[in-house]
Amino acid sequence: MKLTINDIAREAGVSIATVSNVMNNTGRVSEDTARKVKKIIEAHNYTPNISARKLKNKNSQLISVIVPYLKKGKFEDNPFFWQLLNGVENGAKDQRFNVMLTGVENDHDLTFINKQYLDGIIVIGLDEKTKLFKNIINLTIPCVFMDSYLTKQGIYQVYNNDLMGGYLATKHLLSLGHKKIVIVAGKLAEQGVDYQRCLGYRQALEEAGIVYDPNLIMDQGASIAGGYHAAQKIFSNQEKITAVFTLSDIGAMGLIRGLNELGLAVPEDISVVGYDDIIYSEYMIPSLTTVRQDIYQKGETAVQLLLDQINRKNNSNGKQIILPVELKIRESTARRE
Amino acid sequence: MKLTINDIAREAGVSIATVSNVMNNTGRVSEDTARKVKKIIEAHNYTPNISARKLKNKNSQLISVIVPYLKKGKFEDNPFFWQLLNGVENGAKDQRFNVMLTGVENDHDLTFINKQYLDGIIVIGLDEKTKLFKNIINLTIPCVFMDSYLTKQGIYQVYNNDLMGGYLATKHLLSLGHKKIVIVAGKLAEQGVDYQRCLGYRQALEEAGIVYDPNLIMDQGASIAGGYHAAQKIFSNQEKITAVFTLSDIGAMGLIRGLNELGLAVPEDISVVGYDDIIYSEYMIPSLTTVRQDIYQKGETAVQLLLDQINRKNNSNGKQIILPVELKIRESTARRE
DNA sequence: TAATTTTGATTAAACGATTAATTTAGAAGC
DNA sequence: GCTTCTAAATTAATCGTTTAATCAAAATTA
């Protein structure tokens, strides 16, 4: 049914070794023979069986993007991941790699990522202290960690300049005259992006001579519902809050909706800055001032870093790539009255 | 280095065949032996080499979701796909299947499918007339087609009741007194979902005794930018349009933004109905009246249908599953003044 | 007890590639 | 003409499983 190397060899009147040599350009075949074999390969659109090749060579042309889900069955509503996955898939395709998506829970055992099955993985937002991290490291397969600030030596990481993002957003709000700026964060784990963004926030405050008030940090969840619920808290807060820095655009979306329902207008009553610049931010009403990161490009970068690692296998010096961020000023922020 | 079945067999003092039989629960092994072997497998955390298994069995526990992209390098901005993929991944995980994502262009060669020994594929929104469709059919691997209305016998399909969705949305607008209702569609290919939704629209018009006017159908693209640009057209249209039925929520999002910029308020000046009920629709300002389909569940359903096919292999009767839709009435529609 | 069946294990042949070791055929050197 | 060298092809082993074909021992039957 399916063509094998034997079929090609038979038709070309050569041995399978020769066919293999032709395919792998080992230079051990005469030009004439090579041409003849190639023609037959072309004609039948033959491609070698990856499993067989892998059994010998130990590579599968398959990588996985690992998303530590909150819970099985729970839909992750941030389009961030989708955009990222598009970037990864696109970058991988260029080098004829395929991309798997795997959602895992935090204490998941990774037997399903059989060591011999994947050529590499990209892991998003993982903390070094988790069991999952240890399990992944133990796999000793090429790996790129994205959006986490890990201290372990010799690993590959990609993230945006989150500290700068936090700094820029806060500085912008400060420049508009805001003093009481709330942060609505996802989880503030020390190795997460939100922690860094908060550091940037604190740095900007400090430069402006404003005392950091931990009560203004809300650890609410980065989801759309998280933002929505934060509105209530902000509304009932005694202090006069005039600006909110939400560490995700979807959180900002929920927040603005929530504020509206409580009779607070954005930006007239409260200014809001988001984070990510997902595609919808530009089209929201009001359009969202936000810290832009190029998510698609981040995906491409990560896959590139991973494939580099896969190709020259024994280089384990590790590498960090920090991508730039940019403040996009739109309608959701205004001068404090 | 890596443990093989031989190591386990040696340590257990049995043959590799016995180890294999233990792993695959063939029932050909005595309880005592099985227990002994299992213990050793456990102790070493051994997992069989998938490539070897694949080579023998020609199955991979791997399926792919195929998204016919518009173009390579172009990011597909509809979160629909992400939600769907989450559903698929979740459903697949239950049965220990992994999920690949593949974006293909219309004339893409599909060799990767054989190479990876995919056990099955889910294809989204594909037209029967395309070359890609023919190529896929020729592969003769288990396949589920989603969101297309194909006429070929013996194939498996999953879609929502799009005709009903179109009907419900239109009926709702009619009941609010609207007469000139524009449709902003993606592509109106005969086998696509948008075509069906338009049929529903026409049916509702007919019941209300309103003549169908093809000039009111805009074939603008279902993207957010498509909706945005449609606003201009609607604005400059001479006829007094009071309502728009956008065949995607993100299109509606772009549209509402566009209308706003042109000084038209939703729903005061124009009512807008979307389609999909993505998670953001509820949080938009105004929140979006839309036809809800449970995308996550659709993903789960598709994967279930696919795995059924994979498991009892020779049943090729085909099957269609039609999932229900529901109208969600929110703020973006109002009675015509 | 001898013949037969059942049970539980082993042997060995695939699966489809890669590659080290080997063979063959010409060409070159003397 | 004989040896040596080189280029180009082949042979055969190997990767780690599954499974059909066997086989041996124990259990059952006559």
Describe the structure.
The structure is a homodimer of 337-residue chains. The first copy, chain A, has 337 residues and is an alpha/beta fold. The first copy, chain A, folds into 3 domains: 5-48, 434 Repressor (Amino-terminal Domain) (Orthogonal Bundle), CATH 1.10.260; 62-159 and 296-323, Response regulator (Rossmann fold, 3-Layer(aba) Sandwich), CATH 3.40.50.2300; 162-293, Rossmann fold, CATH 3.40.50. Helix content of chain A is 40%, strand content 17%. In chain A, β8, α10 (249-261) and β9 (271-276) form a beta-alpha-beta unit. Chain A starts with a helix and ends in a 9-residue tail after the last strand. The interface between A and B is large, with 57 and 56 residues. β2 of chain A pairs antiparallel with β2 of chain B. Chain A binds a DNA duplex (30 and 30 nucleotides) through residues 4-6, 14-21, 23-24, 26, 28-30, 33, 48-58, 116.
The CATH architecture classification of the largest domain in chain A is 3-Layer(aba) Sandwich
Indicate the mean pLDDT of chain A: 90
Name the CATH superfamily classification of the largest domain in chain A: Response regulator
Strand content of chain A: 15-25%
Largest sheet of chain A: 6 strands, parallel
Q: Cα-atom Rg of chain A, whole angstroms?
A: 25 Å
The name CATH uses for the topology of the largest domain in chain A is Rossmann fold
